[in-house]
Every structure is written in C-alpha cells, then in structure tokens.
Design brief:
It is built from eleven helices and twelve strands. The strands form three sheets. Strands 5-9-8-7-6-10-11 form a seven-stranded mixed beta barrel. Strands 1-4 form a two-stranded antiparallel ribbon. Strands 2-3 form a two-stranded antiparallel sheet.
C-alpha cells in the first residue's frame, strides 16, 4: 500500500491565486456591489464541502486494509532551532495516514475558526473571499486528498509544504558530496559521515551500545564504556549531549545511528563543542543495527568527511577484516566461534584496546 511515486512537490495554484484575487478586489468594492451575502454563503458552503471531503478521506483511510508485513514508513525527526522537537519513529502506512489526517483536519478547522473571528470583529470581505478560495485548493493539493479521493500515488512520508510556496532547497554542497562519495564507495564496511564536531582522527575499539541507546539520560552502562567505541541512536536530545555523555563514560569514539538508512552529518549549531575530543561519525539505520556489543571495529576516513566502519572478524591470525555481512561470511559455526572468542578475549584486553587507541591518536598528532 505504500506508494513510491512522486507526489506534488509545490502547489503553485494555491499560492498564486490569492495574489490575483487581492489585486482584483482592490479594484472593486464587494460591499457596494451588494455581494456581502453572496460571499458569506460561499464561505460557509465551501467549509461544509471541505468537511464532507475530510469525512470521506477518514472513512477510506479506516477502510483501507492494514498489512502487518508491509515495510514501515521511517519518519525523520523534526528539527527546531537545531534541536529535535519530535524524535524519529516508524509507522505503518495506515497509521501514518491517520496521523496526517488528524493534522489536516486540525488545520482546516483552525483556519475556519480564525477567519470567522476576524470577519465577526472587522467585517472585512477580502479575507472571507480569500479563505473561501484557498481552503478547497489546499485540501485538493493535500497528499491525502490525492490518494484517497483522486486515486493517485504519493510517496510517504509526505513532504512538508513550504509556507511561502518555494521549492525545497538542495542539501549543502558538502553533505551532497559526502553522500555521493559514500554511494559510490566499493570498500567493505558500513558507510559513515563525519560530524561537524569532534576530532578528525581514526580510531578502533570494541563496540559498546549506550543504555539507553538514545543517550538522553545518564548512561546505565557508564562503567562498561571506558576505552570502547560508543554507539548511540539519533533522537530525543541534541547530538552534542549524546557525545558528551559517551565521552564522560570514557569512549574513544562515537558512532551515531541515523533514523534513516543513509548516514547523516551530525551538527551542533551555536554550541561550543571543543570539549568533544574523540571522533564522532554517523551511520545509516540498518547498518547501525549490525554494530553489536563486543564487536571489534575500526573507524577509517574521519578526516576525509566520509569513510567506513570496518568490522574485524576474530580468527586464528586475528588479522582478517571484513565489513557488511562479516558476521555470516564464514558460516554459522565460524560466526558463533568468533563471537565467543571475541567475548572471552575482549573481556581481558580492554587495556590493550585503550593503548592501541591512544597510540593511534599520538601517531596522528606527531
């Protein structure tokens, strides 16, 4: 049921028509023409028609079959002033559409109520006429109207409309370049983008997933993270707060798991990040799920802005390195043996890992 076709990117009619109508109304006095009652009737008729259309949309959403096996829609976090106002989440298409319907219904009702109050107090016909035109146009251009009343396909999650009607701006050149470099990379490992803060040195160590994973409160496994590479998830609190908690726990590197399958460039606008003295990188959602506790990894390419988190497979020589599906590359028996060997050896070698990481940092500085 999740359609992948591109939906309407920019609704030009609803942005251009109000300007045309305003210029026309400046030349004619609707009150003198005796059209007040007609404008009032048109406004109320339009509102009733729109609410009827909303009821039809709600009915069809609820009647739509829900497939539990259907891939969930990944909804990115909402950012406000550089902070996450709403954390990322995943929803089935039906649940997502019901959530969007609630927002659309609230928007339509608020517009009608606010305009009604304005008209009651100032008796101005221009906003009444504009609202009578814009309300049905905005509803028509909404993705839910396109899907459930017109039968079109629109990609989810829906793009957020720009209040000024401008098209969406392209990503910054630096981030776009990093993404292109990652998509074209052929090396083994999990692709990452370097954060705008933190050191630019490569590092290595054992994975320690934060508890809670979003690192929005004091870490429950604070004592287990010393000398290891911390893994945290995006959401709830700013990136800087996550990095600071991991650093205070003694992490030698920080990997942030994005809420989407592609890496993201972690930022901390307006924050002094000089205290973050370890590298910070971000991997995609699916790749981050593969970074389990006790896994030995090396983070390579930090200074270039994009690189790979490479997983080292423990073997007889202890030197073989693989990426991506390393856990299953040698078969189930080998993977199980490697995990057991890694668990036993790593428990007694955390001091060696710290020395290795410290040596790498010193070498980079020299």
């Amino acid at each position: 049921f999740v359609s992948m076709a591109d939906g309407p990117k920019m609704p030009p009619l609803s942005k251009m028509l109000p300007m045309v109508v305003m210029m026309a109304l400046n030349k004619f006095d609707l009150e003198e023409l005796g059209l007040r009652i007609h404008c009032e009737a048109a406004f109320f008729g339009v509102q009733l028609g729109c609410f009827f259309a909303l009821m039809m949309i709600e009915k069809r959403i609820k009647e739509a079959p829900a497939d539990p096996a259907e891939p969930k829609i990944k909804i990115p976090a909402e950012m406000v002033m550089g902070n996450e106002a709403k954390p990322a989440k995943e929803l089935q298409a039906k649940d997502y559409d019901l959530e969007q319907y609630g927002a659309l219904k609230t928007q339509q009702m608020m517009g009608a109520v606010i305009l009604g109050v304005i008209y009651y107090n100032w008796r101005s016909l221009m906003p009444l006429v504009l609202q009578a035109l814009m309300t049905p146009l905005n509803l028509y251009e909404s993705p839910l109207f396109q899907i459930y009343l017109l039968g079109k396909t629109v990609k989810r999650p829906f793009p957020k409309p720009n209040p000024f009607g401008f098209p969406e701006s392209p990503p910054p050149a630096e981030e776009a370049g990093a993404s292109a470099a990652i998509e074209g990379a052929t090396e083994e490992g999990y692709s990452f983008i370097t954060a705008e803060f933190g050191t630019k040195e490569d590092c290595e160590g054992l994975i320690c997933r934060a508890q809670p994973l979003t690192a929005d409160t004091d870490l429950e496994n604070h004592n287990e993270m010393k000398g290891k590479v911390a893994v945290v998830a995006r959401g709830v609190v700013p990136f800087f707060d996550k990095a600071q908690r991991a650093l205070e726990a003694g992490a030698v590197g920080i990997i942030v798991i994005n809420d989407e399958d592609l890496p993201y460039k972690c930022t901390a606008p307006g924050t002094d990040c000089s205290a973050i003295t370890v590298p910070v990188v971000c991997v995609g959602h699916e790749d981050g799920a593969q970074l389990t506790n006790g896994t030995r990894v090396s983070i390579a390419g930090v200074a270039k802005g994009a690189g790979k988190v490479v997983v080292a497979e423990e073997g007889n020589s202890g030197a073989s390195v693989t990426g991506g599906g390393a856990a299953v590359a040698g078969g189930e028996d080998d993977a199980g043996g490697a995990a057991e060997a890694s668990s036993n050896e790593d428990a007694g070698s955390s001091e060696g890992v710290k020395k290795t990481a410290a040596g790498k940092k010193k070498s980079a500085r020299d």
